[in-house]
Amino acid sequence: MLSTIIYRSHLADDVPVKALEHMVVKANNNNELYDVTGILLFNGTHFFQLLEGPEEAVLAIYEGICGDQRHHNLVELLRDYAPARRFGNTGMELFDLREYDKESVLQAVLDKGTSKYQLTYNDRALQFLRTFVEAREKENYFEIPPANYWDFVSDDAADNVCAEEIAIAAADEPYRFAMQPILDPFSCQTDSLEAILHSPGDDSPLEHLSQLSRDKIYQADLHSKKFAFALASKLGIQGQRLSINLLPMSLVMVPNAVNFLLSEIEANGLVPEQIVVEVTEHEVISRIEDVEAAIKQLKAAGISLAIDNFGAGYAGLALLVQFQPDRVKIDHKLIRDVHKSGSKQAIVQAIIKCCSSLEITVIATGVEKAQEWMWLEAAGIYNFQGDLFAAPKLNGIPAVAWPEKS
Ligand code: MN
What we know:
By secondary structure, the protein is of the alpha/beta class. It has two domains: about 1-140, Alpha-Beta Plaits (2-Layer Sandwich); about 145-405, EAL domain (TIM Barrel, Alpha-Beta Barrel). It has helices at about 20-35, 55-65, 100-110, 125-135, 165-170, 205-210, 215-235, 250-255, 255-265, 280-285, 290-300, 320-325, 330-335, 340-355, 370-380, and strands spanning about 1-10, 35-40, 45-55, 70-80, 90-95, 150-155, 175-185, 190-200, 240-245, 275-280, 305-310, 325-330, 360-365, 385, 395, 400-405. The two termini are about 45 Å apart.
């Protein structure tokens, strides 16, 4: 199948621009071997390349390009399929944008077209090309330093009070929790702690709960929170914000659910204003009016609302209208390798923009790589959760690895 990949990258600082011609000649020989054709643009700093050819061949060439040390901050802009090549001439045509004006480059690119029909800029791939030539997206190019620019230094000051005693005491409890912080790495501040239900064995908390009969799931989900509040209290979280996940239907199906939560919060010396209830998109969509009524009750009691795994489910942006959450936690699938994916970047930027207008705090979850964090920080996110900084700790508060310039 004929496939197209488009990426943008930044010429490495230690590579002289003069070396470019030689690079192109070598690349051309390689492309010819693999039957890959396309267009390469260079503007003095950035490359823009469109690769076309049989899928495996394009992927093989692209893999080599991704590993090339002579450029960095490579962002994949498009990966698509087409009935025929746009640029079928041998190898790769290079256009140095510094040598021509924009109009003539755009026309010259069309003239290189070998497709059956005259190429036009109606095509998505060529729209990306035009945007690059016209330098219209430049404010979205975040040049992030390499991963080794940062050291992550553990504070281990948090190695908490009587963790062992708590672990022993918790051993017999039906529900155990692990704590994972949400934090602002630049100001070295912990925003909140999330109490994550720890399931025995390898299954996820939800799988564990789903082994129960239908009416017991909600009962168990709600009652487990009692142990989360108790753990938070034993760990001495004081005024710290505490996040818990709740199936929205637990609030509907269990009688007096909100009162149960409120009395457990009080019994453990906590206040509703420090509690954040996280609900997941896909759970919300059934019986939406009932869920809405329960959420009103939570808010009326002072509890904040977060939408968890945002961007992973089906309900989408309409939820922001319906539930007016205080916080949105972007799903880890959108965060993974966001620094390398133009599509993820576009979606995350739209979420940031939308939440900013709605005064909703955005949290990036599942952050594992320094580059993910740096890209997100550059895009305007300040709150992060993920193993890069602190993995969940059973019965305790984990130490945080704060970034420091190496
Ligand atoms: Mn959560």
